[in-house]
């Protein structure tokens, strides 16, 4: 096997990180376009997206491609970043 | 490798089939408990569940664990079975 080959484990983690990044970008676009974070649609989109990612991570964990810890920290990290975005947008709405 | 070993591809497909089956069972339970299929909550649960499964299948396809055709037919099959359940419940509600 050449060193350049990417294992299915590495690919799984890379894809999950990519998908988490996509959710973050989607929410950034929503905030930048002044769709208020208080809007129920925003909450619904976010919940659905987070659910989808959590199902992907769960599948990767069940396939032993990603450890439970790594999967959990991926989701926790995204939630933390979303909270920061959310708080910043609320502050700028008030200011 | 002993013959009994299951490849990650086989395991991925088995898990996806299991998850599709769980959605079908969930909807059956909802129908049996007379939560009407016209109820918006039912639609929302179903949409979210289907979205979650489609994300799992998409990940497995991107990892080359399941072919696009097999993934698509898994989802199509589930939709077909859900339609049958849905129609049956509407007929019994009318009858």
Automatic annotation (TrEMBL), chains A, B:
Pfam short name (any one): DUF1507
InterPro entries: UPF0358 (IPR009983), UPF0358_sf (IPR036270)
Positions of transmembrane segments: none
Classification via SUPFAM superfamilies: EF2458-like
Family: Belongs to the UPF0358 family.
Entry-linked HAMAP family: UPF0358
The protein's name in its UniProt record: UPF0358 protein GGQ92_000088
Organism of this sequence: Gracilibacillus halotolerans
